[in-house]
Design goal:
heterodimer, A: about 525 residues, mainly alpha, two-stranded antiparallel sheet, 21 helices, 2 strands, about 75% helix, about 5% strand, B: about 500 residues, two-stranded antiparallel ribbon, globular
């Protein structure tokens, strides 16, 4: 087991190195580009297999226990250890990361984004995967920071080299924002490490803040919270996100929304709640308030973009919808209750699946039309995808209703639980305030439904009324490789919607333990 | 008479003083050989110099087994003037390693700019001998002598490009400000001597605990003035004015040498006088150094931030200002040493940081020298699209800059900064830690901007050069870059190699 976990983190790194070397004889493929893209699919596939094996070998009766742990001393001078492990909180995120990266690699194999050589592209994707997996698997604050930073550089290059219009500015903004946030976070982590006497997350969670004074906790939570909030992203630190998403290539967007944003919310659950509960308690109402503002702001921004004549970009719209969805996740965390945090973790996974799917779909639409501008797409009557490319249209409609939280699909449970948690927030938090938050968040779901339906009407419907598009030529419908990349996401969205217990059964014991203080 | 002479004559431990001695002997050999070698065989001098430095480095090996002292008083306290302890060896290793990389950088520059190679190697080796002597010095006179031996050849080296007026101007500026600082320091040393009656550091420390109350002011003034000379060498604000002009005017390898070995000399001197000689006056130099550290890093980083990338020589200027900023970080643990019960550990952070900084900064200069071969203007904008032209150089420079910034994959840069942070926090200097954090953020901006530039698509001007064959990279330059990169990568994988100095008492 511990080999499995260590391998999931190390294999992509080795794969990234191997991608830079020339292909060995026998694996040369049709040409070097094809060989290296195939290499990417193989390695991410192997990592996915490893993570699935890890999930299968995971002791599902004790999801609260750290499993597959490795604990080796690395830098004794600073007390930093290579401490890896998974529990019910991190396991789903690990599998999600491995899955989304594999699907992205598969998609790129057939549809490489325009830009320089695929060699660097594959290597960067693999480094990105290693960094994300590492940040979910490590149990040492300094290693968490390292992993957190490790993903920035590949993401920067994915946007700056393979992105669309305005990519250099967007990439620069992305890296500057997140770096500034994470430097502040580093200060908070150091403060905890120095005052708490160790960087080990498990030991610190077991202390449950008993070794840290209230002032220390407040300063540390503020510092760490800012770093994580930039990444999550929380309103008002979100402004890097729409630009980065709009400029990023399709797989960049998928990974950014599906995986990278989760690192922020995961940090809240793994570090802030158990290690500095006092500080978390002080800041929870503010976090919840910002989260709700994020929900409303994201939805209103989307509504504005979806309007006719607003020249709204579909990718930008999905990016803003991410701000709203991550608002629900943050609201769930801010309730400090098992219900809310479970909801947050569920919404995390659901958002990864659904938004990943939506970015894939929008990327496909952009490839076919050459634009993702909503006005240019829909023209006078609508883009009429139902008529021109029925499967693509159907999938987009599916993604949209999943995103708006239709019961029976993955999007529903997380947001419902987050609001339920806010109905009964933890002791000591102002209930009236949280009731207001809940009501506002509920209003946010209505707005989400509104803009998603507007998008469906403008993109999927239209035409001359007979189901035939008004003069527009037919489009290539979903191709086999696209089906291969998207079907797992669709299937898991339905599965998580119909059988939420599979996921909640994993997270709940672990969350209960984290909130109790690791024991 | 004979028995008396026997008690005065000291036995010299030649092994202990081997590192500076070998460097000095090599300098003399080069000087003499220069007279007899015909013009076309001059490159041989470089080989002798590099061999001498390597030999001096190897002579550190037999010293590893334990502390040795020599040039001791034969009576009384038996205080020694030369000690080869753990601290000495680490700093000598740093100095000699830095000198080796500098020498490798110099080989091709000597040819390109037609510098007089005999003089060049002699001066460099002399300076190295002084720098290697300094960490072992344990009395104020030896310290001053070592400092001057390290500095005087440097003035000449800076001004060696005779055809370049900027070079002469830089040398003059460097010389005048350095001499002033030395004079002030000598005044300080004489004050300390006047109030304590001894020059040996340990005895000064003893004597300073019970200074005649009437001499107290004199002693404090002596302590403060002595620091000035070393603060100058480290380029601490307000003694930093010479840095940008001197770096720009000097041959590039000499700028690299000053930024690493010159600074190491200053820091070692500062550590020796503050921690060993003046511990009882920690309330005088502690706050002074803390304020100096804060000012130095802020002024350095803001200066680096203000560099316009398209100006000529902006790359060297940026490196110069960033080295001022880095000097600020190096000062933090020394200031912290004034506030803790365990100053040995605090200065260990400085040594660990200096080792990281030495490897990485020399590496950055090596790539700068590489790029300067095709773009002699030294503009930061010349680095645009370097990745497309020579990927390995771009990757190496990117790595060095990220190490300086303290970002993964430059893991060692990050953790070296973490030890400095924790030294400050442990000493209760929270405000200094916050100032440092702000500075790290400022520095991130310009390091990242430069790194990002390396990987941008080259603009039209650069693409024109595609038809030409890429210039061959001289082997010594490539070796220097590769060596620095290897050290950086090895340290990033196993930071414990240098960080252990931060967890054990060095002095």
């Amino acid at each position: 087991m511990q080999i499995l976990l260590a391998a999931t983190v190390v294999v992509p790194l080795l794969g990234a190195l191997a991608a830079l070397l020339p292909a060995p004889p026998g694996l040369k493929g049709r040409n070097p580009d094809q060989a290296v893209l195939r290499h990417g699919v193989t390695v991410t596939g192997a990592v996915l297999a490893l993570s699935v094996a890890l999930a299968a070998g995971f002791d599902h009766d004790h999801p609260a226990r750290m499993q597959a742990t490795t604990d080796i001393s690395w830098i004794p001078a600073l007390g930093i250890r290579i401490h890896l492990g998974v529990d019910g909180v991190s396991l789903p995120l690990l599998v999600l990361t491995a899955l989304l990266t594999f699907l992205s690699a598969l998609y790129s194999y057939f549809k490489m984004p325009a830009g320089p050589s695929p060699k660097a592209f594959v290597a960067l994707i693999l480094v990105l995967e290693a960094g994300t997996l590492a940040s979910f698997a490590v149990l040492d604050l300094m290693l968490f920071f390292l992993a957190f930073e490790m993903v920035l550089i590949p993401m920067y290059f994915l946007i700056a080299r393979w992105g669309g219009e305005g990519r250099e500015r967007a990439a620069w903004r992305f890296i500057l924002y997140t770096l500034l946030g994470s430097v502040v976070m580093l200060l908070g982590l150091l403060l905890i490490g120095i005052k708490g006497g160790t960087f080990d997350m498990v030991a610190l969670a077991t202390d449950n803040g008993s070794g840290l004074s209230h002032t220390t906790q407040i300063v540390a939570v503020l510092a760490i919270g800012i770093g994580l909030a930039v990444k999550a992203p929380m309103w008002p630190f979100h402004s890097w996100l729409p630009d980065a998403h709009t400029a990023a290539p399709t797989v960049g967007s998928v990974l950014l929304a599906g995986v990278l944003l989760k690192m922020g919310t995961y940090g809240f659950v793994r570090i802030v709640l158990p290690i500095a509960p006092g500080g978390a308690h002080t800041f929870a109402p503010y976090l919840a308030a910002f989260a709700v503002v994020g929900i409303l702001y994201g939805s209103l921004a989307c509504l504005a973009l979806a309007r006719r004549g607003a020249k709204g970009d579909l990718k930008r719209l999905i990016a803003y919808s991410s701000v709203g969805h991550m608002g629900f996740v943050l609201l769930g965390i801010a309730t400090l209750t098992p219900t809310g945090v479970n909801g947050a973790l569920f919404a995390n996974i659901a958002h990864g699946l659904i938004t990943g799917l939506l970015f894939f779909l929008v990327g496909a639409i952009k490839d076919r039309h050459g634009t993702s501008d909503l006005d240019a797409l829909s023209g006078a009557t609508g883009a009429a995808l139902y008529g021109r490319a029925p499967r693509l249209g159907g999938l987009l409609a599916f993604g949209a209703v999943a995103s708006l939280g239709l019961p029976g699909l993955a999007g529903f449970w997380g947001e419902m639980l987050a609001m339920l948690g806010s109905f009964h927030p933890a002791d000591g938090l102002s209930r009236p305030a949280y009731l207001v938050y809940m009501a506002l968040a509920g209003f946010g779901t209505l707005l989400t439904a509104a803009y998603m339906l507007v998008v469906v009407r403008r993109v999927c419907m239209g035409g001359d009324g007979d189901g035939r598009p008004g003069g527009a030529p037919a489009l290539t419908d979903v191709q086999t490789y696209e089906f291969a990349a998207w079907t797992p996401l669709v299937a898991l969205t339905v599965l998580a919607g119909l059988w939420p217990a599979a996921l909640l059964g994993l997270t709940d014991p672990a969350v209960q333990q984290l909130l109790r203080g690791g024991n | 008479m004979v028995p008396l002479a026997g008690s005065v004559v000291q036995s010299v431990d030649w092994l202990a003083i081997a590192p500076p001695t070998v460097a000095a002997v090599a300098a003399l050999v080069v000087l003499v050989a220069d007279l007899f070698l015909p013009e076309r065989k001059k490159p041989l001098l470089g080989g002798i110099a590099i061999g001498g430095i390597v030999l001096a480095g190897l002579s550190l090996l037999p010293l590893l087994d334990g502390d040795r002292s020599t040039f001791c008083l034969t009576s009384g306290t038996r205080a020694c003037s030369y000690t080869a302890d753990h601290f000495t060896l680490v700093v000598q290793f740093l100095v000699l390693g830095g000198a080796l990389l500098t020498a490798l950088l110099s080989v091709s520059d000597l040819v390109d700019f037609e510098l007089p190679s005999g003089e060049y190697w002699f001066l460099l080796l002399s300076s190295v001998a002084g720098a290697a002597l300094l960490p072992a010095s344990r009395d104020l006179a030896t310290l001053v002598v070592a400092l001057e031996v390290a500095s005087l050849p440097a003035f000449a080296l800076v001004g060696l490009r005779r055809d370049d007026s900027r070079s002469s101007e830089a040398a003059l500026k460097f010389f005048l400000s350095s001499v002033t600082a030395t004079a002030v320091m000598l005044l300080g040393v004489s004050f300390v001597y006047a109030s304590t009656g001894t020059l040996h550091l340990t005895q000064v420390a003893d004597a300073l605990t019970h200074v005649d109350p009437r001499l107290d002011t004199l002693a404090s003034a002596g302590v403060a003035l002595t620091l000035v000379g070393f603060a100058f060498k480290t380029a601490a604000v307000p003694f930093h004015f010479w840095v940008p002009d001197t770096y720009v005017g000097a041959p590039l390898p000499i700028a690299a040498y000053l930024s690493v070995v010159g600074k190491a000399v200053g820091f070692t001197g500062l550590i020796l006088v503050t921690v060993v000689a003046f511990p009882s006056y920690a309330d005088v130099w502690g706050p002074v150094l803390a304020v100096l550290a804060a000012l130095t890093m802020t002024v350095g980083n803001v200066g680096a931030l203000r560099q316009r990338p398209d100006r000529t020589r902006s790359a060297v200027r940026l490196l110069a200002w960033s080295s001022v900023g880095q000097a600020g970080y190096l000062l933090v643990p020394i200031a912290a040493a004034a506030y803790t019960d365990d100053p040995g550990r605090a200065i260990g952070s400085t040594v660990a940081y200096a080792l990281m900084y030495a490897a990485v900064n020399l590496g950055a200069f090596a790539v700068a020298a590489l790029v300067a071969r095709t773009n002699p203007a030294h503009r930061v904008t010349d680095y645009r699209g370097l990745y497309a032209r020579s990927p390995l150089a771009a990757l190496a420079l990117g790595f060095f800059l990220l190490c300086l910034a303290g970002l993964p994959p430059g893991v060692i840069g990050l953790f070296a900064k973490v030890t400095v942070f924790s030294a400050a926090v442990d000493a209760g200097l929270g405000w200094l830690a916050v100032v440092m954090a702000v500075n790290v953020v400022i520095a991130l901006y310009y390091y990242l901007q430069w790194t990002a530039l390396l990987f941008r698509a080259p603009d039209g001007e650069a693409e024109r050069a595609d038809g030409e064959r890429p210039a061959r990279i001289p082997a010594p330059l490539a070796t220097a870059t590769a060596l620095a990169a290897l050290v950086g990568i090895a340290l990033s994988g196993a930071p414990q190699l240098v960080l252990r100095f931060a967890s054990e008492a060095l002095l």
